[in-house]
Amino acid sequence: MTQTPATGVRVGVQIQPQQADYGQIRDAVLRAEDLGVDIVFNWDHFFPLYGDPDGKHFECWTMLGAWAEQTSRVEIGALVTCNSYRNPDLLADMARTVDHISGGRLILGIGAGWFERDYDEFGYEFGTAGSRIADLAAAMPRIKARWAAGNPAPTRDIPVMIGGGGERKTLRVVAEHADVWHSFGDVETLRRKSAILDEHGAAVGRDTASVVTRSLAVDGSDPDEVGDELLAAGVRLFTCSAGGPGYDLTNAAAWVRWRDARA
Fold it and tell me: Which residues form the Luciferase-like domain (predicted)?
């Protein structure tokens, strides 16, 4: 991932692919890039998470292919892909392709999955939280091996973002495989789980304090109130979200201004 000069502080915005026509989503992505955010994310679900549960919704990876052509500067990715929905080798090849379409701007955000309706209605085995995390752990070496075997190879080492906060299992997978860890919660929760991540890192031989970027959801937070404390706690990627159909980017704009004031 590229870094904002001087501080390494970055801002992401998740454009929720729900409750909107695709033209409204496309417009929101353009506005986000023009605003100056560093990364534009969508998510990987098949039904809305908020609002009308049967409202408009679009698929993640076909959308990322379109975003790769539409945008020119921002990095793009899912926050996050559900590992359960695609064969890991297929997912790796999809990611490699979007990486090339975008000119090396893809982040592979991935997680174990949790939204049971997706599983039930699309015919996937829901299993248990433990089985889904074990599947994610098993998928990561396959993804990386498929990238290594691809022709052409990815344009770069595609950054892997893993989302989740399970202290015993998920953070172990983060320690082993992630370049970015995405989490939720207040600063105290972040500090505690970040320390646990570093314990896992020591166990697997990775200096996660220096090689794993901390990303945090900051929806609705005022950067002038919480930004410096989160920065001191180790957060370097601050991510907010915007929902359809209007896609209000006011919060993202505030974080961009805060970022730029520290550059």
Answer: 10-230
